Amino acid sequence: MDLNFSDDELAFRDEVRAFLDKNLPAALAAKVKGGKRLVKEDMDTWHAILNRQGWLAESWPVEFGGTGWNAVQQQIFEDECCAAGAPRTVPFGLKMLAPVLIKYGSEEQKRTYLPRILDGSDWWCQGYSEPGAGSDLASLKTKAIRDGDHYVVNGQKTWTTLGQYANKIFCLVRTSTEGKPQEGISFLLIDMETPGITVRPIILLEGTHEVNEVFFDDVRVPVANLVGEENRGWTYAKYLLTHERTNIANVGANKVSLAHLKHIGQHQKIRGRPLIEDPLFAARLAEIEMDLDAMATTNLRLLSSPDSAANAGPMSSMLKIKGTEIRQALNDLTRRALGPYAMPFVSEALDTGYNEAPIGPDYAAPVSQEYFNNRKISIYGGSNEIQRGIISKMMGL
Amino acid sequence: MDLNFSDDELAFRDEVRAFLDKNLPAALAAKVKGGKRLVKEDMDTWHAILNRQGWLAESWPVEFGGTGWNAVQQQIFEDECCAAGAPRTVPFGLKMLAPVLIKYGSEEQKRTYLPRILDGSDWWCQGYSEPGAGSDLASLKTKAIRDGDHYVVNGQKTWTTLGQYANKIFCLVRTSTEGKPQEGISFLLIDMETPGITVRPIILLEGTHEVNEVFFDDVRVPVANLVGEENRGWTYAKYLLTHERTNIANVGANKVSLAHLKHIGQHQKIRGRPLIEDPLFAARLAEIEMDLDAMATTNLRLLSSPDSAANAGPMSSMLKIKGTEIRQALNDLTRRALGPYAMPFVSEALDTGYNEAPIGPDYAAPVSQEYFNNRKISIYGGSNEIQRGIISKMMGL
Amino acid sequence: MDFNHSDDRTMLKDMVSRFLADNYPLAVRNRSAESTEGFSRDIWQQFAELGLIGALFDEQHGGFGGAGFDISVLFEALGRGLVNEPFLASAILGGGLIAQLGNDVQKDILTEVISGKTLLALAHGEPESRFDPAQVTCRASQTDSGWTIDGHKAVVLNGDSADILVVTARVSGGDWDEDGISAFLVPAGQSGVEIRGYPTIDGLHAAEIHLSSVEMGGDALLGPIGKAFPAIELAVARANIALASEAIGLMDVCRDMTLDYLQTRKQFGVPIGKFQALQHRMATVLMEIEQARSACINAAGRLDLPRVQREQAVSTAKALAGRVGRLVAEEAIQMHGGIAMTWEFDLGHYAKRLIMIDNQFGDVDYHLARFAELSRTAA
Amino acid sequence: MDFNHSDDRTMLKDMVSRFLADNYPLAVRNRSAESTEGFSRDIWQQFAELGLIGALFDEQHGGFGGAGFDISVLFEALGRGLVNEPFLASAILGGGLIAQLGNDVQKDILTEVISGKTLLALAHGEPESRFDPAQVTCRASQTDSGWTIDGHKAVVLNGDSADILVVTARVSGGDWDEDGISAFLVPAGQSGVEIRGYPTIDGLHAAEIHLSSVEMGGDALLGPIGKAFPAIELAVARANIALASEAIGLMDVCRDMTLDYLQTRKQFGVPIGKFQALQHRMATVLMEIEQARSACINAAGRLDLPRVQREQAVSTAKALAGRVGRLVAEEAIQMHGGIAMTWEFDLGHYAKRLIMIDNQFGDVDYHLARFAELSRTAA
Q: What superfamily would CATH give domain C230-378?
């Protein structure tokens, strides 16, 4: 047992730091750290920088252009990126579709799509959820009916994050209604420019546009765009859900949030003394900090455990639940730290180019929005209730 | 809306206080307040005093020797008794069996048993739970088979509180195995001196003897001891569970516990200053005190609500859950208040006649035992899980 | 003891509920929240005509209510309707201070307030005062002709719509002294008053107000010099009863919407309300709301008791509103899932207001600490 | 980074587990808990022969371990076995102080400690010191021939079995000063030492110790005069790692027993583990135990880091042990229902020990406040 980074790991960390220091644009880091809204260009910029370095596809095998890093290295990279204020890479192509293609895609699909993910030619989004199929994904209704060399797709997807920027969508569609609901699902790759696709924005409760509805009306998709076998899409989707564990706990981002909250606690005052010295606030903060410190170890412990592959499902579930709980606790305590200044909400203040003085302290503007926006993290990607169900199955209940 | 006691209610309270002042033996009150173990004689003494005054059967109608008090009066009486350090009356005859007899018993049963409850001739205990029938009471297996003028009872009851003192037991027994499990249950009154009954003590985790197992081996019970109709016992048992709401929240006792905890908080020290001034302890205490203050009003509000009869089930459930949560929170914070002195446990120190100096502060001896003992209150009388189920049914879920 | 509302209050409640059901759909409310002032002047006038502003003042001041239970009954109904008109700013806070401290001439303003013609706001909080009602660094200095006021007032509720600001300022003492605080009537258009209004995340409006050498006559002062603190504390107490009651209304709506959703939304072939884990959590939600409601009743009923008892009850009501409000808002969103995250679905708007109530006039931790301090005072 | 234990520690763990499985049934443990000393001398001797006491000391002091992970591996296994022999009192606390402060002659005692022949106890806590390691009011005054010690030591773990007491006393400074505390070796039979032993609710033994003009020679002093505090703090840190690790072992047992019960106990015709409300709560139990385990690993691994990092990790481990321990104990009892409330059923004995760990060397709130204070020191 050794909690210290090895010399190799330390060297790797220094290399990452040096890279970030040199290549992460200061203006972009400032935006991220200031809680400003990122636009597509911001995300594209960082994507290209990482790609140039060969560090874009952390978790892919080297043969496909990935880094070949192990779990600890990936975690170091994510932590350092977060600490430096790098934007998170958009995961749909890199972390969600790619592992599925690498394991189940045809040679042709790998050759076609993986390079286009890396060079930014394709922006993928995810077509899983439907209005009637949220936690119960297997009940999805979007249909794909074979017609010669094409599938004809009809139906509706929802909660499609950043779909407004995407030119491609990977979808779970129903190709059969026989057997268990899981058994008739297929995994299709669809070009968003195909006629019959409509994207409609969904505005979130705090006013942001992150997610969309995607409507399919007689959309013709070449059969060559089927991943793996027909009616086996559920297997691929499940692989994807359990495969992606690195960073599911968001340790790096949570550490940054904690540091930011401490900064706020030092600047907010109670009777002239820093809020962080208030015993109740200090205890709430300590509680979260302790939990996060333990979480960082839980995360690495589970990721590097020899039986991690076997227990991938429940492990992801634990990391996801605890990671979201910590993040939401941080968001809540940050909201409380602001006192009355949590209320003002000038949406434009979160856009680049807003030049007026901030209302209240400069860190106040994004706080409440983030609190409300992050209620989503315990809902999406399999709600925390679904995750608890997975854990309890693993326990034999 | 008026939160103040009316003049009549104030006069009643004063009358209760005067009575307690004059009639509650000081030594007995000291025992109760000091957390000492009560023996049968203590309980008998107080029972007799209340009976002399005509205040023993708070919730019975006047015609049977009850007080005829309304809900607010009963609550005032309970609160004052708690505050004065009176022992709680043993509920099995007074509050559990009696309402069932009054509603469903034969004239003969009422005439025979109610006076004997009042004058202390009978000490009743309850024969509901069985080793295989806890939360799922309807699955009970103790059988009563008709044989002429008798039922022949075979089986086992458990968790029989204070059964070691009882000369009578009221039991739910299975008289039929047809239909739903609830449908074949009957309500029987059994003399503990009947041949074939064995009482075996169950020692609780902290070493006390409160509960017992009761074994029935070909016990012959006269058919006249059947309450109501054969196979309708489930109805009577449910009536009993939902009927008794006064004091289910234990507001009076919780107030006394809170006051005692404050007393401890004033005497325990952190760096020479009273623990009660420690901001974290003070906040935990405030949280409980606030909840209890709200609870006192929730209790009276629900008890005196005009639609209380209709909602008796879910209301009892709410009062029971919240009352036990508050009590357990008090027990836990009291345990924590003691610091290392929560550990010493000299069981004899809780008995009258123990003459050695206390270990640590004089209030320390019963604290941990009470914490552990009171884990039972969220389990018995329908676990808090069962109560949440009742509430969710009421909400239409 | 009697836990039924008087007939008058029951009528008031029913009237408001009916009016809101007929005239105040959420879409209209959300549109008015996005307007320049963040509420509807037209609706405000109708509220005034219905007597709702008058219900918050006693007869002596031209109203027909003003007691704790008047506040709680009205604000619970306003909460159910997610009303964003300036009852709190104009009637409870601004009006409350004038009613307590004003002389006869000053009190004449209240008639206009009750009729809805004049709007008030209380410019009391400051950038660093957080929830402390005694922290006033804004300064008022006596001049030959009256007063000069300087300072920065923060997050002044409806400060951008008020005709008259009730501004608190320190005339003596240190930054956190209760003694030495005065309140002044300052017309919003007075020279030296700079008002920057903005929307809040929960659909209200507030303002940062800078006062630079604002010259006021002697008649601007409310009450005896430097002695405004007790009146401020009482106005804040009434505001907290209003907010806690509003929270109850919001919680009831969130609970009902969630129960409805649990009964109709199906996943895995059954209504999600059949899942025991959700059932048990909803039982907790139900119970805790009843606890918060009881705390509100206690605070409203103890408003006229001696200070420590009053303030402990107020802190209890507000702390429970904060704790239970967060539980209810978060559980309601979580149990709804994605749909609750959208602007188009009503729940989120209720949830936002419910959470933000905790950031007004003291959050859970503030009131826990304050309650404990008051306990020690009492002991 | 490497999260696997070394082969030596894995062997140690397996050996202890096997020994306990074969020789330490709960019924035997409970009987020894009721004996005069509250543990078995015979078993203690066997533990010594297995090298378990030596595992808590480094080679320099005649052991073959003593690192953070040695403590955590051993105490986790002892927790699983609900062992009540005096590892903490004699090896970690008493032995730990001698190893840190003792001169060569004094350190000779450790050989006897490791062989199980001599028992130590740390007489440090006092009736009003609660969890504060610097609060020492017991006095030691220098005399011609050595020292005179007076005072009352409270809840001294295994103080009634020790051959030698390590007594802390103040030689200078105020009641809460870190400076001015010394530790002394006092034979239990020394004149003026009055020991009142008693059982604890969780099956251990402790003692109140009164020292009245206890005369000791100069060779009783451990280390430089008045400078014992850093050693005491480190001994307490090691004790807290031991306790937190013991708690992990206890939690694992409680969880496994509960899972087993949920799978076998039927109510309403199905195993109660099929009820979703219980499933979700068990998922929380499982997760939180993993968090507590991580905190223990962190504390064990950071034992040799600079003070603030070390102590923050220790406070984290102990706070999580306290918080999660309570969750696990209470949920395990609740999910078992009545059966868990009985003496005859094993669970309650584990639960009692698990809860009481929170009352030793700092409860959750103590460690939260301390962690926060250390954070400020570090900033």
A: Butyryl-CoA Dehydrogenase, subunit A, domain 3 (1.20.140.10)
